[in-house]
Structure formats: C-alpha cells, structure tokens
Specification:
With 319 residues, the chain is an alpha+beta fold. It has two domains: 5-120, no CATH class; 124-316, no CATH class. Helices cover 55% and strands 7% of the residues. It contains 14 helices and four strands. Strands 1-2-4-3 form a four-stranded mixed beta sheet, covered by helices on one side. Strand 1 (35-39) and strand 2 form a beta hairpin. Helix 5 (151-167) crosses helix 7. The longest helix has 20 residues, at 100-119. It is globular, with a radius of gyration of 20 Å. The mean pLDDT is 90.
C-alpha cells in the first residue's frame, strides 16, 4: 500500500521535491492570498486546498500530483491549480479555469487521495468492481499483445493483475495474513470483477502467491512473478522498466505517461482515470477508455457512475 503518489515506484523520485514544496506552501499560507479552500476539513479530517495564481504563490514550483502532509492526526491535501486558474482570484467558486478537463482530473485526484488517507480506504476498493476489472484487462491484454501470449496465459495474467490490484489496498503484513488465513477474499474479489475467469485458474494463481515469501504489492514484485504465473520464458528478464515502457501509453493529455505509471500502484489515481474515461470525450480514443467502453462492462459502468458520485459527494455537500 502506497501512502501518496510520491511513495509509488514511479513517483518516489519526486518525493524530495514534494517535501520542499510543502515547506514553501507553509511559508506563504499566512498571507491568505492564492491558496483557496476546496474542502475545509469539516469533521477534523484534513482539508483540501488549491494553489492558485498570486504574488505570494508564484514562488511555489508547479506540481502535477496531489501533495499530502499530516497535521493533527489528519492529512491535508494540496493541488496545483496555477496552470488552470487566472491570476488573483482568491475564492474557489470565482476561479475561471482555463481547462476544465484537466481541472476535473486534478480535483478528483485530490478528493480521492484525501478519502484514501483520511476517510476509508476500503470504500475505494469495494464501491465498484469496475476499476479492478479494467486494471486486470488493460495489464493482461497489453502484455499479451506485446509478447504474443495464448489465451490461457493472458487469463492467468489477468488473475495476477487482479490480485495485485487487491494487494494495493493493504500493507505487507495484511497481505500475508490474508493469503494464509483468508484466501477466499482474493478469489471472490477477482471473480467479481471478471466473469470470464474460472475458479480453477484463479486458485492456481493464488497458490503461486501463497508460495511466495514476499507480498506482491509493487511493480517490481509483480514483474518478478510473471514468468512463474504464465509459464512463459518471455518474462525471464522482465523488469519494471520494460513494464512501464509497455503500459504507460494507455492515456492521453497532460502528464499522461507519468499518471499511468503512478496509477498502476495508486488506486485513487487509477479510479480517477476510469472516471475520466467514462465522462470526458477528450480521452475516448485512449487504450484504457476503449476497454472501459466495451459493452461487456456496461452493467458495471452504470453502477460505477452512481457510486463514484457518492464518494465525491462527501466533499461536494460540504463545500
């Protein structure tokens, strides 16, 4: 389980810079210009603020992913709205955003990151099977095309990806405990999100997971297990570098490749991408969106739309 985007494999190289940005933001907060509230932390559960244009905030470097810092037992979350806002507008409801699509991406990432850190991480796992279904399909189909895998190998990879997505919601110790004491949770999670899978394949992959000493909860560990799960030598030297090179092209727009790389280990951003794929025409031709739009997932997309509105509504009702 990764705390923030900056703790993931793809994001950790930016963590020191993010920490420097936190210090700069704190140094200008007292001037009350250019930092505006999205969510005020009504229940002492941490606030969400946007960094907008002002003479005071211009010294804050641009940052693309939500930054979180723990204060008084809750995480406060900041987003960088400077690229989307006009100068000197200090009320959230008065900001005239230049790019509403990218703004929606930034705000939804921030709200789901805040929810992940402060409210209930399990809600993001259980509110809809669609994110896990698309995750497993995107990873397995992309790798299967790249390496010319047969259908059984692709299905085994889909199970692998489904288990991996499930693991992203738990710590190493929690994963190991579930594998040994509650393996049925892995089986139920994957079967719920993919009707094409049969229980036999799911259990065979689960047994491989149970044999491992390490919890499979990072891209590096995911890659290390691909050969054993598929039985294919094409994965003998498969590394996270190759993994990212193959999979990072699934999205369009600002910071697309970096967003996918982080989303593959950080469910709040993955869920945001799925929401955009359903609601923004800009992304309709992206590989991820094309999977989301398949008729096979139509029943899941309808419930996803209702449930994601409920999660985001936690904040909208309190603005």
């Amino acid at each position: 389980m990764f705390l923030t985007p900056y703790h993931t494999t793809a994001g950790k190289g930016m963590l020191n810079e993010a920490n420097k940005i936190v210090n700069i933001i704190k140094s200008v907060k007292g001037y009350n210009e250019g930092i505006v509230t999205i969510y005020p932390g009504t229940n002492n559960d941490g606030y969400i603020e946007a960094i907008c244009h002002s003479d005071y905030t211009k010294k804050i470097p641009d940052f693309f992913h939500p930054i979180a810092v723990k204060e008084n037992n809750a995480y406060d979350v900041w987003i960088d709205a400077k690229p989307f806002s006009n100068p000197r507008q200090n009320s959230w409801d008065k900001i005239d955003f230049k790019n509403m699509t990218d703004n929606y991406f930034a705000i939804t990432k921030a709200k789901l990151t805040h929810y992940w850190l402060n409210i209930n991480i399990n809600d993001i796992r259980t509110f809809s099977p669609l994110p896990a279904a698309i995750y497993a399909a995107y990873v397995s189909e992309t790798l299967a095309r790249k390496f010319s895998l047969n259908i059984e190998q692709q299905l085994r990879l889909a199970v692998h990806a489904g288990f991996f997505y499930f693991n992203l919601f738990f710590t190493d110790d929690e994963i190991k405990h579930k594998l040994q004491n509650k393996p049925e949770e892995f089986v139920a999670f994957v079967l719920k999100s993919n009707k094409m899978l049969n229980e036999k394949i799911v259990i065979e992959v689960l047994e491989i997971y149970q044999e491992e000493d390490l919890a499979i909860d990072s891209i590096d560990r995911f890659c290390s297990l691909c050969e054993k799960i598929t039985g294919s030598v094409v994965f003998t030297d498969f590394t996270q570098t190759a993994y990212y090179a193959i999979l990072n092209g699934g999205w369009f727009g600002l910071g697309a490749r970096e967003s996918v790389a982080i989303a593959l280990e950080y469910p709040p951003i993955w869920v945001t991408i799925i929401s955009l794929a359903l609601n923004e025409r800009t992304y309709r031709n992206s590989p991820i969106a094309k999977i989301v739009e398949r008729s096979y997932y139509r029943d899941l997309t309808d419930s996803f739309q209702r449930q994601i509105s409920g999660l985001i509504g936690y904040y909208e009702s309190k603005n």
